[in-house]
Structures are given as C-alpha cells and as structure tokens.
Amino acid sequence: MTTNHGGDDNLDAIFKHKRMLRTQVKKVLKAIDPSLRSQQDNDIQNIILGAPWFKSSIRLCAYISCSALREVDTSKLLSEILKDPITGGKKLYVPRVEDNNSHMRMLNISRIDDLVANSMDILEPAPVDSDGNAREDVMQTNDPVDLFLLPGLAFDRSGRRIGRGGGYYDTFLENYQELAKTRNWKQPLLVALSYSEQILEEGVIPITSSDVPIDALVSPEGVIPISAAAFNRYQ
C-alpha cells in the first residue's frame, strides 16, 4: 500500500518559500534609512488616527511595536488610546506570549506603565496588575472587539500576511473569530500596519489553511481596503 505524501510535500514547499521571503524582507527592512522609517511610522499612525473606523472603535487589540524587530511603530496610537481611558471610552488589549506553542493572550491595560520587558526585551503586560488582580483576558470579556491592529513581515493587496513564523497571531485570530461566531458577535476588523517596502506583488506570498487573511492594510500611502467588511467601513 502506497501513502500519498503530496500534501506534506506541498506544505514543506510553502514553508520553505515563506522562510525565503522572511529572509528577503528582513534584509530590506534593515536597509531602510532610519529617518525614512520614522517618517513612515508617523504617516501610518496619523492615517489610522484620522480614520473613521479607528475613531468609532471602542474595544481594540493592538501590538506593542519593537524597534529591534523593525516593526511599524504603534507608540503614538497606544498613547492616543490610553490618554484618557475614562472619558475617551476606548479599551485596549495587548499581546502576551505564554509559551513556545503559539499560545498568546490579549490582556487589558490602562496605561503604558502596565508593560514590562520580557526575556527578549519585548514589552508585554504582566498577567496581574499592581494590586495583584488578574488582567482581563479578551477571550473572556463579555463584549466584542471592534478592531485588531496587526504586525507582520510581508503583505499583499489581497489580504495575505506573513508573520515571523511562530503562528501566534494566526492561532489567536482563528480562536477569537470562532469565539465571536459562537457568541453571534460582529467579526472584528483586522488591519495590518506596513512599511511600503513590505508590500509584495500579489501571488508571491504562499498560504495554508491556517493563515488568517487581513481585512485592510495601512501603509504610508494610505488605507488599502481588502475585504467586504473593510470596504463597508471605509466608505
């Protein structure tokens, strides 16, 4: 009896292609002039701050940018969300990596000081606050999230995204989307932040069934709506 390993071979080819793209994009990001990257950071964040879909979002999940990873800066966005949580009305959840098995949580913070550096010098929330109380987990909240602001290494205009290979965001997003479905919540808008150099030609990025597509992409040139949900909210 012969076993067909064609599917495994195809997955191996996809993962190999993704590793190659990650290597290429990392080199490109490293070569960007710091002043140009800073300008792109400002442009991207200003576009988001001025967007109606951002202003109308009440509950948000957002990544904490890491300069060593050359991620699009989110410090201005986080400061805006957290500047006045009582009257501003927005609630923020940020990621905390729990283990090496793609297990990530999104925990509520109310100020930047709630973040601490982990072993890789990446800022993330401690599991308990200064009073020893467990932070609210977005998977256990009674209200739906309106918007996810996502990082990544490479994107295209059809919604494909390549992360850093750990699978943390795809796993989390899939679980959250399933939670929203079971609770009959409106699905959140998935928006990725990208430098111009990270946007690849359509068809270059391979995908598997576990890759979660994004709804929209924000680059220094503006918002690129992709899904029907993004087009509806972009109008």
TrEMBL record:
<comment type="similarity">
    <text>Belongs to the 5-formyltetrahydrofolate cyclo-ligase family.</text>
</comment>
<keyword id="KW-0547">Nucleotide-binding</keyword>
<keyword id="KW-0460">Magnesium</keyword>
<protein>
    <recommendedName>
        <fullName>5-formyltetrahydrofolate cyclo-ligase</fullName>
        <ecNumber>6.3.3.2</ecNumber>
    </recommendedName>
</protein>
<dbReference type="GO" id="GO:0035999">
    <property type="term" value="P:tetrahydrofolate interconversion"/>
</dbReference>
<feature type="binding site">
    <location>
        <position position="64"/>
    </location>
    <ligand>
        <name>substrate</name>
    </ligand>
</feature>
<dbReference type="GO" id="GO:0009396">
    <property type="term" value="P:folic acid-containing compound biosynthetic process"/>
</dbReference>
<dbReference type="GO" id="GO:0005739">
    <property type="term" value="C:mitochondrion"/>
</dbReference>
<dbReference type="Pfam" id="PF01812">
    <property type="entry name" value="5-FTHF_cyc-lig"/>
</dbReference>
<dbReference type="InterPro" id="IPR002698">
    <property type="entry name" value="FTHF_cligase"/>
</dbReference>
<dbReference type="GO" id="GO:0005524">
    <property type="term" value="F:ATP binding"/>
</dbReference>
<dbReference type="InterPro" id="IPR024185">
    <property type="entry name" value="FTHF_cligase-like_sf"/>
</dbReference>
<feature type="binding site">
    <location>
        <begin position="161"/>
        <end position="169"/>
    </location>
    <ligand>
        <name>ATP</name>
    </ligand>
</feature>
<feature type="binding site">
    <location>
        <begin position="18"/>
        <end position="22"/>
    </location>
    <ligand>
        <name>ATP</name>
    </ligand>
</feature>
<dbReference type="GO" id="GO:0030272">
    <property type="term" value="F:5-formyltetrahydrofolate cyclo-ligase activity"/>
</dbReference>
<feature type="binding site">
    <location>
        <position position="71"/>
    </location>
    <ligand>
        <name>substrate</name>
    </ligand>
</feature>
<dbReference type="InterPro" id="IPR037171">
    <property type="entry name" value="NagB/RpiA_transferase-like"/>
</dbReference>
<keyword id="KW-0067">ATP-binding</keyword>
<dbReference type="GO" id="GO:0046872">
    <property type="term" value="F:metal ion binding"/>
</dbReference>
<keyword id="KW-0479">Metal-binding</keyword>
